[in-house]
Amino acid sequence: MPSMRILTAKQMREADRRTIEEVGVPSLVLMENAGRQVVAAMEASFDDLAGRRVAVLCGRGNNGGDGLVVARVLRQRDIDVSVFLAGRVADVKGDARTNLESLGRLGLPVVEIAGEADWELHAPEVAGHDLIVDALFGTGLSSPLRGLLQTMVEDVNGGGAPVVSIDLPSGLSADTADLIGPCIRATVTVTLGAPKLPLVLPPAREMAGELAVADIGIPGGVIEALGPPDLRLVTADGLRGLLPARPRDAHKGSFGHVLVVAGSRGKTGAAYLAAAGALRSGAGLVTAATPRSWQPVVASLGAEYMTEGLDETPEGTVAPSALAAVLAHPADVVAAGPGLGSGAAVAAFVDGLLARADRPLVLDADALNAFAGRSDALKARPGQVIVLTPHPGEMGRLLGVPAADVQARRVDAARELATRLGAHVVLKGHRTVIATPGGRAHINTTGNPGMATGGTGDVLTGMIAGWLAQLGDAERACLLAVHLHGAAGDLAADDEGEVSMTAGDLLGRIGDAVLALGARGNAGGPRNAGARA
Fold first, then answer.
1. Do 55 and 204 belong together in one domain?
2. For residue 61, what is the DSSP state?
């Protein structure tokens, strides 16, 4: 699978249990691996780690035990490290106790912070360090921090020193992206085994800083065998294998034919951007079909795609009678919607296309708005492949709720529509969500606010269709297109700035994004612990 599972607290506990009881990896080994991977990530993030003074703040549980391993490894490397325990030494049990005793044998003292008075005494000492390791709480927290722990967190946040959090910034809950109370604002978070929801979705995501995923010895098969929910993080490393190799004897017919049905009076640019997005994504042939009056305009915008004029209404939109020409076209994939316009004629055309098309459909923009308030009419027939690409407003119209409600539960909303309609859903926006008919959902990490400009969604529609024509797999085509779309936007923002970039700038960087994915390292997503992104 070309993406990484995002685990709930319950799933993480089950993965630990299976690894210990069924695979036979001792829990003490998992803790040792975790601590060493955190140190590797610290070395990757801070070139001058050897010269820094490091304070490790530990809780009494397993997260604190991971921090104790970090402290031991740092001491063994002659790095100046101090350890502060939120609680009493006598209360530390299990594997954490074993690692606490190891520190004692190295002669590294542990400072007890058993109450507010202890913290008031030692807080200036902690503040005097150049780097803080947050090992107070991991995935088990379900209620807000209060009292001493709240004070510690707030003082660390106010101190200004960079913070490396182990697994989660202390104060976050592993099961929600909402902030449940005060929490550490991390510079780097080294999450163990697999990402967790608050590390990838706002608002909690903003507290995590740079994200590294540490392999602590939990087999991939154990993680993949966990039950629902199946939520995943799209990564460049996982996607590289999806880029199809091009045989030397390939020809334009080898990479699929995309038909883009788009455009109307005043919206011919949408047809161009979608068709060009398909071409830039490697489709061998692309035809832009548009109302007949606008065919010369669309043809003049791009020399590389073909055009076809469709029957039109007096208002300059596609007419229902145009359906016959679209159904007769030899394309492998049909993308419809960008700039089509509104009205009864457009709705009748899209209804007919959905009911009679015998090839995969990618529906966007006005093709989705035609189903506002009647989304059940979008339900896929058995064997039919449909990709829907709404932004939050369009999704809200399909679900009959305000866009703000969609934004508040993006993953659940995308899953709901995908499973109900038997379609693949790409919910656009910050951290685009790709949901499948089977209930799996993926979160994309590439992209930036500069992409919030007219036309970028049209480019994405064409990209999805282009990759679908080549791969023949809707889920993989969506993952690849969405990642590359965001990566191209990031490259364009580097050149033009987020304020000035346009959809055309993004279009011109798709090739660079493909090259980066195929040959030049990670173009987005979290890095592996110990290696730079």
1. yes
2. S
